UniProtKB/TrEMBL annotation:
<feature type="transmembrane region" description="Helical">
    <location>
        <begin position="39"/>
        <end position="58"/>
    </location>
</feature>
<dbReference type="InterPro" id="IPR050638">
    <property type="entry name" value="AA-Vitamin_Transporters"/>
</dbReference>
<dbReference type="Pfam" id="PF00892">
    <property type="entry name" value="EamA"/>
</dbReference>
<keyword id="KW-0812">Transmembrane</keyword>
<feature type="domain" description="EamA">
    <location>
        <begin position="7"/>
        <end position="146"/>
    </location>
</feature>
<keyword id="KW-0472">Membrane</keyword>
<feature type="transmembrane region" description="Helical">
    <location>
        <begin position="98"/>
        <end position="120"/>
    </location>
</feature>
<feature type="transmembrane region" description="Helical">
    <location>
        <begin position="156"/>
        <end position="176"/>
    </location>
</feature>
<dbReference type="InterPro" id="IPR000620">
    <property type="entry name" value="EamA_dom"/>
</dbReference>
<feature type="transmembrane region" description="Helical">
    <location>
        <begin position="218"/>
        <end position="238"/>
    </location>
</feature>
<feature type="transmembrane region" description="Helical">
    <location>
        <begin position="188"/>
        <end position="206"/>
    </location>
</feature>
<protein>
    <submittedName>
        <fullName>Permease</fullName>
    </submittedName>
</protein>
<feature type="transmembrane region" description="Helical">
    <location>
        <begin position="275"/>
        <end position="293"/>
    </location>
</feature>
<feature type="transmembrane region" description="Helical">
    <location>
        <begin position="74"/>
        <end position="92"/>
    </location>
</feature>
<feature type="transmembrane region" description="Helical">
    <location>
        <begin position="250"/>
        <end position="269"/>
    </location>
</feature>
<feature type="transmembrane region" description="Helical">
    <location>
        <begin position="132"/>
        <end position="150"/>
    </location>
</feature>
<dbReference type="InterPro" id="IPR037185">
    <property type="entry name" value="EmrE-like"/>
</dbReference>
């Protein structure tokens, strides 16, 4: 395997592992240090946004401000920031507070299946057989996770399901909505501005200037893991890795996030899972691999068709 491939895989894996660690740190700060979700959202968006904009400026200079000369693109940036980044993080934090980092992260990974459903409803794009199988797997996996105590209806946690699926839906917005912006202006500056602007908006909305946290060294370490490692470092590492190995392998490696989050939660925080819950996690994680395989199969088929047409001509 080429050195470029190894480097790309290592960077993508590093990014996903740091995302898992970040989620575990959120659960730690919420449960052990009593930090409130709204303040944590404000701090993460503002600080990570400023740092990410700084990285973009070092790389591209004043060109990163070009988006602010296009009113339509500013509107798209706000939609991406509010319904994508900010809502995804807020709902994810709320989901962690209710169900723990492992379950919250797995529910978030229902997003690829929701994208399939959205494309069908919006553009009448019929899912392939593997995609339809993923929809069923995601449904079964979600039910197993939310009702993992023997699948007893009395244990059905509506809030855990609600915030988990809101988080997944926001990931869909995060994935589909900013494609044109990312191609036109670059990913780092767009994500940085979206985080910073939404950090200001969330501060104005929630007005949580007090964290309500028990401040000590572990609190600062947790914030470092969430804001620096889990946002700035993880994003740039993963995006650089995907640049080297491609989106297909990157999407497969991203499935390590719920696994790492579950392991970190188990080792560091003592989270536990029933066999039914573990089965649900496997079902949802499997959808990432199936979708990636199906995409690869479709691309390969299109390339072969193109080659056959060229040979006929």
């Amino acid at each position: 395997m080429e050195e470029k491939q190894w480097k790309g895989m290592a960077l993508a894996i590093l990014g996903t592992l740091l995302w898992g660690l970040s989620g575990t740190s959120v659960q730690f700060l919420e449960s052990a240090k009593h930090i409130n979700v709204e303040w944590l959202l404000e701090a993460r968006l503002l600080i990570a946004g400023i740092l990410t904009i700084g990285l973009a400026y070092i790389r591209d200079g004043k060109r990163i401000f070009a988006i602010f000369t296009e009113p339509k693109d500013i509107g798209k940036l706000l939609i991406f920031g509010i319904l994508g980044i900010a809502l995804a993080q807020y709902s994810y934090f709320k989901s962690i507070a209710i169900s723990g980092v492992g379950i919250a992260t797995v529910l978030q990974n229902v997003a690829p299946t929701l994208i399939i459903i959205y494309l069908f409803l919006r553009y009448f794009k019929k899912p392939s057989v593997p995609e339809f199988f993923c929809i069923v797997l995601a449904l079964v996996g979600t039910l197993c996770i939310v009702m993992q105590e023997g699948l007893d209806v009395s244990n059905f946690n509506v809030l855990a399901l609600f915030w988990g699926l809101v988080s997944a839906a926001s990931i869909c917005v995060y994935t589909l909505q900013p494609i044109e912006l990312l191609k036109k202006y670059g990913s780092t500056s767009i994500v940085g501005f979206a985080m910073f602007i939404c950090g200001i908006l969330s501060l104005a909305m929630f007005q949580q200037v007090e964290s309500e946290a028990l401040w000590d060294g572990m609190t600062w370490l947790g914030l470092f893991a969430i804001i620096i490692l889990g946002t700035v470092v993880s994003f740039n590492a993963y995006m650089e890795g995907v640049t080297l190995i491609g989106a297909l392998q990157g999407s497969i490696l991203s499935s390590l996030e719920p696994i790492s989050a579950a392991i970190f939660g188990w080792v560091l925080l003592g989270n536990h899972f029933t066999l039914v819950g573990i089965f649900g996690m496997i079902c949802i994680i499997a959808t990432v691999f199936i979708i990636a395989w199906d995409r690869h199969r479709q691309i390969k088929r299109e390339v072969l068709k193109k080659l056959n047409k060229e040979e006929i001509v």
